[in-house]
Amino acid sequence: MAFYQCADSIEVRTTPGKIYEALTDWKERMAWRKGLRLEWEGVNQAVVGQKIMARVEGLPPHFFQFKVTGLEPPYRFFFEYTHKPLRGRASIEIIPGQGCCHVSFYWLRVEPVGFLAQLYFRLGWGLSGHRRQTQQTLQMLKAHLEK
Predict the structure, then answer these.
(1) Average pLDDT of the segment spanning 74-96
(2) Structural domain tally of the chain?
(3) What is the tens place of the pLDDT at every residue in 26-55?
(4) CA–CA separation, 17 and 14 (whole Å)
(5) pLDDT digits over 53-70, tens only?
(6) Which run of H or E residues covers position 104?
(7) What distance in Å separates the CA atoms of residue 128 and residue 134, rounded to the nearest whole number?
(8) Do 37 and 143 contact (CB within 8 A), yes or no?
(9) For the domain that residue 133 is a member of, what is the CATH number?
(10) Exposed, middle or buried by CB within 10 Å (0-12, 13-18, 19+), for 129?
(11) pTM > 0.85: yes or no
C-alpha cells in the first residue's frame, strides 16, 4: 500500500483565534468554502471524536469522511480520514507572526482506499488534485478573513 504526505501553507493577516474558528466551526466553514457541504454529529464546533461527512463539488465531485482526533485551540486541529476513498492522518497548524499567521495543512500519512482511489493516485491525479483543492481552500480562507 502506498502512503502519501504533503504540506501546503499560506499567510493570513488576522489572529490565530479567527483562523481557528473559521476552520473548526462547521457552519462558518461551509459559508466561506465554496462548493463544500458538510454533515456532522452534534454541535457546530469541532470536538474530539466528532465525525464529519464532506462533499466537495467539482469535476468529479468527491466525498470523504473524517473524525476529529485532537484540538489545541487556537493553533492546531488534528483529524483522521476514516472511509473510502482515503484513510489516514492530517492536521492544520496556525503559527502566529508579525501581523499575520502562517496556516499549514499537512497530510501526515494518507493512503487511498479501494481500487479506483488507488489507481487515481498511481496515475498521479490524486495528489495533484488534493494539492490543487487545498490551495484553493487556503485562498478562500484568506479571502474570507482578510475582507
Answers:
(1) 96
(2) 1
(3) 999 999 999 999 999 999 999 999 999 999
(4) 8
(5) 999 987 678 899 999 999
(6) strand 101-112
(7) 10
(8) no
(9) 3.30.530.20
(10) middle
(11) yes
